[in-house]
């Protein structure tokens, strides 16, 4: 997180092993394992006679669940929320259209349960769990196995955004009607309506973020 925050800018060397071991109170074995993890995520690189340095930002693998969560903790909250929102706006309306055209019975049943849980939610926690499951179900209903890992990738950060949106609304389930429009269009296999309904829902989300 210190690297993502900019404490160690791209090209800068990391402190020596002894300093890092003392700072984090870990053994050399643990430290080296941690450095291998950061290397695999594109944050750092080690070279003989040069040491360990931070890689350029464009080498960082932010499409990694751990990296995305770490980044969400250190990035300016509004900036991160808008970046995640932009990603959702590019993907989810089309995913809803795909779900409408391609969903199979098991996926539709899971989406129905998620929508019912939203209808029945009695508090913010129940609503957020159901809301998150609803959006993950839409991705799963696309019948495109490449989109399912996307849900797993953004799940933790999306949950945080959904919780924030629920708390900013007049009531936690203020967007139930918009979710129901998405649900009805998918079940009816109306791809165009599903795309529009999801875009409308995300428009409400953006208004809450920017408000």
From TrEMBL:
Keywords: DNA-binding, Transcription, Transcription regulation. Residues 1-57 form the HTH gntR-type domain. CDD domains: WHTH_GntR. GO terms for molecular function: DNA binding; DNA-binding transcription factor activity. SMART domains: FCD, HTH_GNTR. Pfam families: FCD, GntR. SUPFAM superfamilies: GntR ligand-binding domain-like, Winged helix' DNA-binding domain. PANTHER family: GNTR FAMILY REGULATORY PROTEIN (PTHR43537:SF44), TRANSCRIPTIONAL REGULATOR, GNTR FAMILY (PTHR43537). This is GntR domain protein.
């Amino acid at each position: 997180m210190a690297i993502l925050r900019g404490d160690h800018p791209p090209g800068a060397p990391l402190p020596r092993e002894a300093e890092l071991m003392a700072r984090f109170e870990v053994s050399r074995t643990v430290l080296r394992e941690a450095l291998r993890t950061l290397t695999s995520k594109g944050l750092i690189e080690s070279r003989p006679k040069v040491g360990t340095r931070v890689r350029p930002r464009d080498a960082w693998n932010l499409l990694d669940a751990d990296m995305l969560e770490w980044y969400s903790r250190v990035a300016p909250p509004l900036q991160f929320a808008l970046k995640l929102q932009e990603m959702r706006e590019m993907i989810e309306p089309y995913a809803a259209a795909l779900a409408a055209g391609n969903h199979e019975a098991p996926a539709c049943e899971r989406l129905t349960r998620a929508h019912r849980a939203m209808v029945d939610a009695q508090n913010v926690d129940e609503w957020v769990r159901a809301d998150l499951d609803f959006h993950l179900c839409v991705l799963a209903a696309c019948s495109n196995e490449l989109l399912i890992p996307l849900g797993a990738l953004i799940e933790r950060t999306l949950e945080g955004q959904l919780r924030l949106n629920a708390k900013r609304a007049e009531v936690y389930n203020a967007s139930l009607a918009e979710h129901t429009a998405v649900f009805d269009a998918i079940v009816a296999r109306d791809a165009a309506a599903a795309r529009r309904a999801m875009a409308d829902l995300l428009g409400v989300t953006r208004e809450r973020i920017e408000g």
